[in-house]
Amino acid sequence: MTDSTPTASQAFLDACAAAIGAQNVLTDAHDTAPYLADWRRRYQGAAFAVLCPANAQEVAAVVKLAHEHRVALVPQGGNTGLAGGATPDASGNQAVLSLRRLNRVREIDAHNNTITVEAGVILAEVQARARDAGRLFPLSLAAEGSCTIGGNLSTNAGGTGVLRYGNTRELCLGLEVVTPKGEIWDGLRGLRKDNTGYDLRDLFIGAEGTLGVITAAVMKLHPLPAARVTALAALGSAHAALDFLALAQRYAGPLLTGFELMSDFCMQLVGRHFPQLRYPFQEHHAQVVLLELSDNESEAHARALFERLMEEALEQGLVEDAVVAESLAQSQAFWNIREHIPLAQAQEGLNIKHDIGVPISRIGHFIEETDAEIARTVPGARMVTFGHLGDGNLHYNVQAPEGGDPKRFLAENEKTLNRIVYDSVDRHRGTISAEHGLGQLKIDENMHYKSDVELALMRAIKTALDPLNLMNPGKVLH
């Protein structure tokens, strides 16, 4: 809220209670607490209320009241973000706008291959409803059991299927949005071709609630694969992994739906903290790739293709060893290794995280150069490098030296190591946020690396749509 008095706050709350029901206006500290900290517990905010509308019309009513009373709103979905984008500031003058009650699947159109869902629908529910209709919704994240479609859209989430299906932006055909003035824009058209002016949809995707509130979306569905083949391949370097990726794309084309890179230290961490997820090879290797083929024909066809791919990869010396999942359970075990890397990091202690992206061809050089500079700066620092190699997105994280104090490591080195990593990203024409968004975590870095022209264009859009700066202020832009 911008310089509002407690009286003004109460007037706003009374009006909200009339619009959405008093039971959906939370002010008790016990009730609001779960909405005030981010998933990583890095940010702890304060809010004078948490507002829980049930549909787009109620969202519009709340936003209109916020505009009238000059109250700043922080839209929030599943609260699983990693950049503090859905956490209020510490002033206590903001209200959290929770979209969790907007949880209906409005329509599944099998012929149009679309599903229309409200912003608060859990990602796993969208996947399940698509499967029930004989279709695939390919967005897949570690937090899919609790993150929401609205949050996925607001951060343009990536996940493990980007190589084949694209980011959340590519999976969205239309939006329903409440503007900062409380108007509803109905863009739920489900069209794959529409050249009738500016693409408003893309403005709101990835904007982290700073331009308006996404209340529903039309999302693309795909044919349900007849079979999946999952494998782990061991390689000697990131450069070899890139050559292997090129070979896999040549052999499999669009059937290649997963290609995840994991450094040896990632694998060691998982084995140390989750011994049931054992290292799958007899010897340690510099890099391991998790790859998956999705075939619409048959498992036999997918396996035959995979065998030809691996024969050539071994013959060329790209792959040093490989193991293919022989069952769904083993396939899930392979994916569990990948998905447990962040959990193993957390068990190991505090670390410095980077969600970066560089052109795919530069990944090997980026890792070599940046690893070396970090080693010179903090001898013994341990690199936890993993991510979606097929789209250039790396989770490039730095763990404290063995036996060191993680809190002291962060306090003494975070700023310096961030600058090393982000300067290297910039030299390689990359991005400091590939899929987690900017939120409040990277807002200063964004100001540093964006050009004046780019920032001016972004500010012009923000000012045009939200001149009072009431939509998630303090996120994305200063």
Strand-helix topology:
Layout: H1 6-20, E1 25-26, H2 29-32, E2 49-51, H3 56-69, E3 72-76, E4 94-98, E5 105-109, E6 114-118, H4 123-132, E7 135-136, H5 149-155, H6 162-165, H7 168-171, E8 172-178, E9 184-187, H8 200-204, E10 213-220, E11 222-223, E12 227-235, H9 238-252, E13 256-263, H10 264-273, E14 287-295, H11 299-315, E15 321-324, H12 328-339, H13 341-348, E16 351-352, E17 355-357, H14 363-377, E18 382-388, E19 393-399, H15 406-427, H16 443-449, H17 452-465
Parallel strand pairs: 2-4, 3-4
Antiparallel strand pairs: 1-2, 5-6, 6-10, 7-11, 8-9, 8-10, 12-14, 12-15, 13-14, 13-18, 16-19, 17-19, 18-19
CATH architecture of one domain: 2-Layer Sandwich
What is the first-to-last residue Cα distance?
Answer: 16 Å
Q: Helical residue percent?
A: 25-40%
From the alpha-carbon coordinates, what is the Rg to the nearest angstrom?
A: 23 Å
Task: List low-confidence stretches.
Answer: 1-5
Structure summary, number of beta strands: 19
Helix/strand structural class: alpha+beta
Structure annotation, total helices:
17
Task: Give the averaged pLDDT, no decimals.
Answer: 94
CATH topology term of one domain: Uridine Diphospho-n-acetylenolpyruvylglucosamine Reductase, domain 3
Percentage of residues in DSSP E strands: 15-25%
Largest beta-sheet characterization: 8 strands, antiparallel
Shape: globular
CATH class of one domain: Alpha Beta
